[in-house]
Amino acid sequence: MSSVPVTTWYLEQTSPADLLPAAAPEGDVRIVRAEVPSPEFNRFLYTAVGGDIRWTDRLDWPYTRWQELLEKPGVETWVAYDRGTPAGFIELEAQDDGAVEILYFGLLPAFRGRGIGGHLLARGTARAWDLAERWPGLAPTKRVWVHTCDKDGEFAMANYQRRGFTLYDTRVELEPDAPNPGPWPRAYPA
């Protein structure tokens, strides 16, 4: 299999004051925390959002690994719904040093370009800043960070920067040149 260079950018906020708001999208868009750990639901979100942008690192995870992640204190999934339909998600993970990583963030293809992403990112980042309030025993958030790469959606980097994230590192690595997996096998034509 051939390899391709992939550029990954690392961005952060170091204060809640760094967070810049986004306009609320039109229509009935709600953002709700998925409070019951559900490997099936999180895997659905992961494959539905990442299928066309080559999210592959979790595709072979067994049920137990999903369950372990979702039951970890300080891991939260916030879901955007458009008129009751899941439109996207943001997954947060508290780390030992007071940092919160945005593990995954994105929208299903049909919901992109409508202002939902900026709104979800702003609300999810705000939830990263107040995460310790919902998880007794966790250190208060001192930093929120995320990484994105040139395989992600074309507006990902600009969205992070519009929400107040600043770049602190860039890396280029070779990765296998794999086809988009789709939300299920062979979902996209070859």
From TrEMBL:
SUPFAM superfamilies: Acyl-CoA N-acyltransferases (Nat). Pfam families: Acetyltransf_1. It comes from the Bacteria. Residues 29-190 form the N-acetyltransferase domain. CDD domains: NAT_SF. One of its GO terms (molecular function) is acyltransferase activity, transferring groups other than amino-acyl groups. Keywords: Transferase. This is GNAT family N-acetyltransferase. It comes from Streptomyces griseofuscus.
